[in-house]
Design goal:
mainly alpha; two-stranded antiparallel ribbon
């Protein structure tokens, strides 16, 4: 029986209990993260995580090899694609302000098994990402010493005698320093990150300002080329946008701090939105200046900014650019290490990892054990390993997370978690009201019509009832029963206490809605139609979401994986395109479940243009995922396979959800036996 329960938990969604979590926050503050972040802190975290050192290199590489002078348009298209994922994150993070980010959303909306895979992939992403960023500090620091070879011996890269291992003490020390800063507290680390972000932004503003002055002085010769504005055509511009998409990765770090935000419903969407807007604006301004200063085919792909200023007699500007790159590396490193301890903590809270990782320091209110472990592992990798070959694996975890967040948003809108409405059978007038237990988060709506007609119990959502004629609101006290407008009690909790024929003017114990008797007039054969229609709508939504996702995968395999034989790619394209179009059309035609309005925190951000926007996000992310190449996907598959083994050995047997299912089954069997 235990094996069956654990297998069921693998596909069961986690129930959101925000009220219980808030109660635990008040009664056990030492076990919870502290809410200390405001919107400005979130913006600095988002900009610092996104506006990394890559922009100091990417503008040269993409302009020279793919986009040419159209680099600005490539940044714009990439920003729009990133905004699709950002809007999905904004709604889910404001509705579910809990640690864990994409892992938590997948656990709540999809299943435990998918959530584990996402969490395991994010562990790889943040660890390798932090190590990769840290290894870039030495070349930029060496500029101030006249080259890397002139760095002090205790921070210079060295090769172990008799081996090819190149250690980087500077990278390891930087990771440990950032780890110590993060252990001091989220507010303290956010303040330091704000200072570094301001320095980075000022450097980029200097590049834009000084570069514009040089451009107007020289006549913007980069835009006067014989090849025109699109030397590589539209395909080159779009290919450049696909590469530049990864320059926008980092806003998801904001979502990982949701449990530490004072007003998550307002501040999280603002933090994500403003972070993306600031980074996108700087990217476009910067690219417009650089490709105008130097012809795209003459841009140095390694040092595009410094070489551009050298061309115009400003060699001293390279020191300012290097300072900005160091600041960008530092903030990007914080953005890589900050989310992982919170994901480890969320997985440990759910029992999928040992409780050791969920320990929160009583003073600093940070997951100290997870932070230290993350920092030590990342520092060791940065010190000993050349992680350049693993850097492509970072993008896999990010794109998987972006994809599952968009899928979770579709599920939320069409199949909202723990918002299902209990189905209660119709009862004769002389049998009294049924006894049923409900919770405040699972509202039940009932109405009873005149005895001239068959009694009807109708289950509606709030939004549906507001559109019906003759409804009136009654104050909701406890959310355990409902009464009709005639005063007849229709629904009670499971305590067994029943009252019939209450006085018309008597105050109900608790009521959500009362409907006039003239609302419904149907016979017994039609009373089950609302239930059957809702079941049909849910199944249609399940098949439509699944069909759209399968169609996206097949289209992406056909369009992005060049290693596949051409006939296979044609088959995938011919199968995937109609599947995606048909499933998307169905999602546009069927109604969204109004129960999603009661899911999670009330008053959160609502993503616009659903289902078009999340479907577009899935299409973009899966296409980019497939375009990373078969070798990269195979390397990530090995890591994910290791994660499956860990889950089967430890996570499945210690899962909180599995334990709850087992207790429910044992209770049910005991009640049945008695």
């Amino acid at each position: 029986m235990k094996t069956t329960m654990r297998t069921r938990a693998l596909w069961r969604r986690k129930v959101v209990r925000l009220q219980e979590e808030e109660q635990q926050r008040r009664t056990r503050p030492t076990d919870q993260l502290a809410r200390r972040l405001r919107v400005l802190d979130l913006i600095s975290i988002g900009v610092g995580s996104t506006l990394g050192a890559g922009v100091y290199v990417l503008v040269g590489t993409v302009a020279r090899e793919r986009a040419g002078p159209a680099l600005t348009l490539s940044f714009l298209i990439a920003g729009i694609a990133a905004a699709l994922a950002a809007l999905c994150y904004a709604e889910l993070s404001s509705r579910l302000p809990c640690a864990g980010s994409a892992y938590h959303y997948a656990y709540t909306c999809v299943s435990e098994g998918i959530a584990w895979i996402i969490g395991w992939a994010l562990i790889l992403e943040y660890t390798v990402g932090g190590s990769t960023v840290a290894r870039g500090i030495s070349p930029n620091l060496g500029i101030f010493f006249g080259g890397e070879e002139h760095l002090p011996g205790w921070i210079a890269r060295q090769t172990f005698p008799g081996s090819d291992v190149v250690v980087d003490p500077c990278a390891g020390l930087l990771v440990l320093l950032v780890t110590a800063l993060l252990c001091m507290g989220i507010r303290e680390s956010a303040r330091v990150q704000s200072i570094m972000v301001v320095l980075n932004v000022l450097v980029l503003v200097f590049v834009v300002g000084a570069g514009s002055w040089a451009g107007f002085s020289s006549g913007w010769k980069g835009y006067h080329q014989s090849q025109g504005y699109l030397p590589y055509g539209v395909n080159g511009m779009l290919g450049g946008a696909a590469t530049l998409f990864f320059a926008y990765i980092g806003f998801d770090t904001v979502a990982s701090t949701a449990e530490e935000v004072k007003n998550p419903q307002r501040d999280l969407p603002l933090g994500i939105g403003f972070s993306l807007f600031i980074c996108g604006s700087l990217y476009m301004l910067l690219s417009a200046v650089i490709v105008g200063l130097v012809p795209f085919n003459l841009i140095d792909p390694d040092t595009p900014m410094s070489s551009a200023f050298d061309e115009h007699g400003m060699p001293w500007a390279k020191y300012i650019v290097a300072a900005g790159a160091i600041a960008a590396l530092s903030t990007a490193l914080m953005g890589s290490i900050l989310p992982q301890p919170r994901i480890l903590m969320a997985m440990a809270r759910d029992g999928l990892l040992p409780h050791f990782f969920s320990t929160v320091h009583p003073i600093t209110a940070v997951p100290v054990n997870s932070t230290v472990i993350t920092g030590v592992v990342a520092a060791a990798m940065a010190f000993f390993m050349n992680v350049d070959q693993l850097s492509g694996m970072v993008s896999v975890g990010t794109l998987m997370a972006f994809t599952i967040v968009a899928v979770s948003l579709l599920i939320l809108r069409y199949l909202p978690p723990n918002a299902s409405k209990p189905v209660i059978q119709v009862w004769p007038p002389d049998k009294g009201a049924p006894s049923v237990h409900i919770s405040p988060s699972t509202p039940v709506y009932a109405c009873e019509v005149s005895t001239l007609f068959s009694p009807v119990l109708s289950i509606f959502s709030d939004a549906s009832l507001q559109t019906l004629p003759g409804h009136e609101s009654i104050e909701d006290l406890n959310g355990v029963s409902s009464v009709s407008s005639s005063g007849s009690l229709l629904l009670q909790d499971g305590t067994g206490d029943q009252e019939a024929n209450a006085a018309p003017n008597a105050s109900p114990v608790s009521s959500r809605w009362a409907l006039h008797e003239s609302l419904l007039s149907v016979d017994d054969t039609t009373t089950s139609l609302p239930e059957s229609n809702e079941k049909l709508r849910q199944w249609v939504a399940v098949f439509a979401i699944t069909g759209a996702f399968i169609g996206v995968v097949l289209i992406s395999l056909a369009a992005a994986v060049e290693e596949l034989p051409m006939p296979i790619r044609w088959i995938f394209g011919l199968l995937g395109t109609p599947s995606f179009v048909a499933a998307s059309t169905v999602l546009f035609l069927i109604e969204q479940d109004e129960g999603h309005h009661k899911f999670g925190q009330a008053g959160g951000f609502h993503c616009p243009w659903v289902p078009a926007l999340p479907l577009g996000s899935i299409l973009v992310n899966v296409y980019l995922l497939m375009s990373l190449g078969i070798p990269t996907l195979f390397r990530v598959s090995a890591w994910l396979l290791l994660g499956v083994v860990v889950y089967l050995v430890y996570g499945m047997s210690h899962s909180q959800l599995s334990s709850e299912l087992l207790k429910e089954e044992q209770t049910h069997q005991f009640q049945t036996a008695t």
